[in-house]
Amino acid sequence: MPNDNTLAQRLSALSGPCIRVTCPAPHVALVELSRKPVNAFHDPFWKEYGRVFDDLSLEPDVRVIVVASALPKLFTAGIDFTALGSMANFDKDPARRAIQTKEHISMFQRAIGAPERCPYPVIVAVHGAAMGLGIDIITACDIRYAASDAKFSVKEVDVGLAADIGTLARLPKVAGNESLVRELALTARNFSAAEAAQLGLVSKVVEGSRDEVVKAALETAKLISQKAPVAVVGTKHLLLHARDHPVQQNLDYTATWNAAMLQSVDMADALKAAKTKKPPVFRSLAKHPAKL
């Protein structure tokens, strides 16, 4: 991505009909869901969501991303079921229709899973209702905060299907209570921010609503943005690897990873800052030909 304009301008250019992208602090991107009236996801919305994160992944001056809703009353109502009519255009033959449906679901999964693929940490700030697809979105993020007014539901069984965009794959891995995960997925009952914290779905409950939880998320984002970029990207990558691999495999992989990453100038910059008692200034992840 070219660096001939400011980060704020480049991030703003990623905005679309359903999502607003801004730069509220140096190296921080704020991605706001903004499809009125209730942030219900139809095909263009989830495709835009995936595109925004894939584009942010290529932005070398971003170091952390915050996801929130721009709407004052809620995070998302989930799927826009009125938009599912597009599947009516699939082939009438059951086998071909199944293949087309699987491809559609896989594309949807990839879009909503884009924050997990993104090399930079993603913090989600939830307020109001986060229903159905909202849980898929949240569980694909690295750090999850909720306002005290947040209300959650794994809603899919109420509409006749098993959650298929990420909740059933990720929620058991981020939560600390397998029994409660199954209860919530099988009953579709609402649960509060306090119960979400008990479950492990969120790590912090912030008293208030949208403004308060977004402020808390941005404060954490600013703190992370001051850390060495190579270390932050590596930490996220290795944590995801650890989740999906046995301990010894992760230890071996980490040794190989750091054999390269320990050569970064970031370590020298961090040590120099510690000695001079000045805040460290780290290079972006972009190439700097003059310094090579």
TrEMBL record:
<dbReference type="GO" id="GO:0051750">
    <property type="term" value="F:delta(3,5)-delta(2,4)-dienoyl-CoA isomerase activity"/>
</dbReference>
<comment type="pathway">
    <text>Lipid metabolism; fatty acid beta-oxidation.</text>
</comment>
<dbReference type="InterPro" id="IPR029045">
    <property type="entry name" value="ClpP/crotonase-like_dom_sf"/>
</dbReference>
<dbReference type="GO" id="GO:0005739">
    <property type="term" value="C:mitochondrion"/>
</dbReference>
<comment type="similarity">
    <text>Belongs to the enoyl-CoA hydratase/isomerase family.</text>
</comment>
<keyword id="KW-0276">Fatty acid metabolism</keyword>
<keyword id="KW-0443">Lipid metabolism</keyword>
<dbReference type="InterPro" id="IPR045002">
    <property type="entry name" value="Ech1-like"/>
</dbReference>
<keyword id="KW-0413">Isomerase</keyword>
<dbReference type="InterPro" id="IPR014748">
    <property type="entry name" value="Enoyl-CoA_hydra_C"/>
</dbReference>
<protein>
    <submittedName>
        <fullName>ClpP/crotonase</fullName>
    </submittedName>
</protein>
<dbReference type="GO" id="GO:0006635">
    <property type="term" value="P:fatty acid beta-oxidation"/>
</dbReference>
<dbReference type="InterPro" id="IPR001753">
    <property type="entry name" value="Enoyl-CoA_hydra/iso"/>
</dbReference>
<dbReference type="Pfam" id="PF00378">
    <property type="entry name" value="ECH_1"/>
</dbReference>
